[in-house]
Amino acid sequence: LWFLFDRAQGDAQALGVHVVRLQTLDLALDAEAELNREALRARLALDGETTRLSAAVQRWRDVQGGLQGGAAAIRGIGQNIDRELSAYSEAAEEKDQAVDEYRSRLGDMAAMFARVRVSGEKAFAVTEAESRQHVVDLALETAAYSVQAKPANRAEIERLVETLEYPAAPLAAPAQAAVHQLVTDVRAVLDARDRMQSLTDALLAIPTTERLERLRGAYYGHYGKLDKIVRRYRVALAIYAGAVLCVFAVFGVRLRRSYADLDRTNASLQETNNNLEHLVESRTKDLRVAMGELR
Q1: What is the pTM of this model?
Q2: 3-state per-residue secondary structure call for the chain
Q3: For 28-41, how does the pLDDT look when each residue is reduced to its tens digit (9 = 90+)?
């Protein structure tokens, strides 16, 4: 009975670790979603890495450390879990490197866009009124392409570049130099934006989320089996305890009957004893009378 009770209760410490591991796996999935979301948002800033992206990357890496070591480490629990953890760790390492490259390219793109602003201001200052409008439009279209990368923006940028490089009226030497620098900086931003799109696609294509979900499924499956075993012990404990109670109940009924029989026997003996005293007294009286007659 004590064995069944101990098995049915389970190990309290192991249960606590199990809860921590489940929370860590859920946090890892949340960190994955947050990192992907902030990586997409970071491109919209155009002025460098955002603090939200930095925080998302740090949280994601902290969760990785929690899965690999510490109280929530899940390696060594079972072969299936170890296999899924190795697959996830491989994908996570690849993503970690991709994130570093993404953040580096994001900083480069922000620097390039800053140069577009500077060269655009210089070109605006030295060109004529008609060309100034083209400079403003080119800066706006470049910013739009950097955020959304639509083909229509790219076509409009190429049209504006051609208009500025081959104006109807020849530009002065300072204006030509300023326009040339602006066009050079704009093309650098366009190329950087295309590379960023490729990096983003590659980053999001790394199957960390899918492998993490498989890891969590393997962990749930492993402890689901253990939970079934514990439940079986609890059922066995309930059955065994019920049987013991039934046995005690039968013994109690029999003991009660025995006490009742004993009470009836004692009463009968007491009654017999009382009758015996009367019988002895009656016989003694008869004996005295007979003795008197003999005398």
Answers
A1: 0.64
A2: CHHHHHHHHCCHHHHHHHHHHHHHHHHHHHHHHHHHHHHHHHCCCCCCCCHHHHHHHHHHHHHHHHHHCCCCCCCCCCHHHHHHHHHHHHHHHHHHHHHHHHHHHHHHHHHHHHHHHHHHHHHHHHCCHHHHHHHHHHHHHHHHHHHHCCHHHHHHHHHHHHHHHCCCCCCCHHHHHHHHHHHHHHHHHHHHHHHHHHHHHHHHHCCHHHHHHHHHHHHHHHHHHHHHHHHHHHHHHHHHHHHHHHHHHHHHHHHHHHHHHHHHHHHHHHHHHHHHHHHHHHHHHHHHHHHHHHC
A3: 999 999 999 988 88
